[in-house]
Structures are given as C-alpha cells and as structure tokens.
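Minutes, methods subgroup
Present: GH (chair), OT, SY

1. OT presented the first of two proteins processed in the latest run. Sequence and structure tokens recorded below as shown on screen.
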Amino acid sequence: MIGQRRHFQVAHRPRNDDESILPLINIVFLLLIFFMVAGQLSAIDPFEVEPVESAVDGQPGPDEFMVIIGTEGRLAVNQDEVDLDEMAGLVREHVERHGDAARVRVKSDGRAEAVEVVGVLERLREAGIERIDLLTVPEV
C-alpha cells in the first residue's frame, strides 16, 4: 500500500570471536612482510673489521669465498677463524673445485698492517688464485 510504512527487521548474526582477531592477524602479517623486505640479513664477521675506504664505487659479486683480515694478525675464511696455513689449504680446495673461475673476496680492516695484508695476498696468489677482489667502502 502506498503511504504505509514497512518495518524491516535486520537479522543480527551471532558474534564470532574469530572475526574480531582477523584484522590483528592481517596487520601482523603486513608488518612481517614489511620487515622482510626492508631488512637485510647478512652474516656477521667473526671479529670486528673496519673496512678500507676507496674512491672507487662498485658492488661486490656473489658471496662465494671470503678472506677477512683483522688487526693483530687475525684471519678468517668465510665465518671461521683460521691461521695462514689453514687459509692456504682452503684456498687450494676452492681452486680445485672452481678451476680458473675461482675468485676470492678479501675484506681487510683499515687498521691492519699493510705488510700483513700484502702477505695474505701473496699466499692467495701462491695457492692459485688469479682473481682477488678487495672489498672497500666509498670515501665520504
């Protein structure tokens, strides 16, 4: 009938506790994805190294084999602290596996004695490495 008011009844659904927690779960997953994208995971060096500065700006290649030279004669291969002879043995194994494509990245502390760094580089050459990348940070 025209002009007559109709009354509709809205059916209320019973309250479900799972629906109230769903927005919280969505926010937690969004935060997790944000930190995964924004964060950077990297291996921690076995000892503190202050990198050498240089005017050349370049990106390091894939992390395959890294020699870390610290102060006071400390030396590490990848994440294990070793001495010079152990390093030479590991480098020879690396050369046997990769042949001419074998390359080593060297990360030296800027406070390390130049003589020690040159000595390590010479041992790397003697072990058969032809390509050595010296990692530095850009000058400010």
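2. SY then presented the second protein from the same run.
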Amino acid sequence: MLAIDRHAWTNRWHDLHPLEKLLPALGMLLVTLVLPPWPAAPLSIAAMLALTILGAGVPAGAVLGTLAVPLGFLLTGAPVLALAVDVSDGLHVGLVPGGLEAAAAVTLRSLAATSCLVFLILTTPVADLMPLLGRLGVPRLVRDLMLLTYRLIFVFLDCAATGRQAQIGRLGYDGPRRSLRSAGWLAGSLFQRSLARGRRLEIGMAARGLGGDLPQPADERVPSAWRLLAGAALPLGIASAALLVRRGG
C-alpha cells in the first residue's frame, strides 16, 4: 500500500463524506487561481496544511514529503521564467525584466494549488471519490479509466519492487558501477513487465465477465450540513483576508 493511500484510509477524517473535503479543496483551489498570489497563496497553503495536519491528523512529515516532490519540479522550472539566453552574439544569460516576480508568482500559485490537491488525496480514499464523481456527472468511462490507472500504479510499483529485490539478491547493487547498470536494466525491463501485468489484469477481468463497465462502490452516506457550510466558509474567509491584506499593503 502506498503511503498516500495508507494516510487516506487512516486519517481522522477518512470516514467523512467526500463532499465535505472536496468542497474546501475546490474552493481554496479557486481562490488560488482567481486572486493574486500574494497574499492569497501563502494563506491558502497555511490553511490547507492546518486542515491536513491539525484537522485530519496526517503526520507533518508525510504532508511535507508529499509536497516536496512537486516543489522540486517547480523550483527546477522557475529559472526558465526568470532567465533569458541570447546566442546571437555569443552566449549571454541575463534576467528577464520582471522575470523574478513572475517566477515567484507562478511558483507560489502552483504550490498553493498543489497543497489543495495534497489535502484531498491524503484525507480521501479514491474509492470514496468514485461515487461522488458519479453523482456530480463525471462520465462512467472517465471514472473507469481513473480506477484502472490507479490500479496500474500499484502494478507498476510491484514490478519495480520485485525486480529490484531480485537484483539485490544477485548483488546487483554492490558498488556504484553495478548499481548504475542494474538501475538501467530495471528501467528498461519495467515498462515491458508492467504492460504484461496489465495485459494479464485485462484478461482476468474479461474472464470474470467484466466486458463493460467496472463495478464501483456505492456510498449511502449523507454529508453534514454544518460541515459543508464550514467547507464553503473557509475559502470565502481566506479570500476576504487576502483582499484586506492586499488593500492594507
């Protein structure tokens, strides 16, 4: 089980209705997209972290670790927005006018939007989201593809773990040179193995008579009215605070 999946099933809010968590996540995402990144983005990040860590009880290390991966991509891509390369008369690298501000704004806004998604995935199991997406009108085909993709992620990771364990048993990671070569072999064979496992999964599903739609869990829970109100009030409060701070500054 992935760490993200484990936290989604074991946090304090895992049994709440998914709409009660989806509403504040989408509301805060809208706030980060519509309002200027300063100060709306830092306020959104703080609110999402507080809900995830203090509210749902997800360990802070897990939350920050989940955010660290997309943050690495953002920090890697930010210099592209701030720097300009001129090769017309030799190689010249310089700052684009306003590039630093644009890079900071994009990074801050993206990180705030990512924190909304991290809150949702660390507090809500995927199986809970499928019935809700069905009620919201998401087509069945899209939901089936989401479930299959989710399942194939586990197939891919299982293939990677099995292959690496076999390589370790043959001393494939004894030294930097062997480690590099083993990692290359593992990467090269992983795609083929995953396709083969996925093909066997498809054959197994067809053998059980699943030639059409995938069976999806039903959810008879009713969302709490006051929790929905609180989930709607949070983005409005953050947006109001951001506008007040901006006018005051």
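Chair's summary of item 2: The longest strand covers residues 83-86.
Next meeting: continue with the remaining queue.
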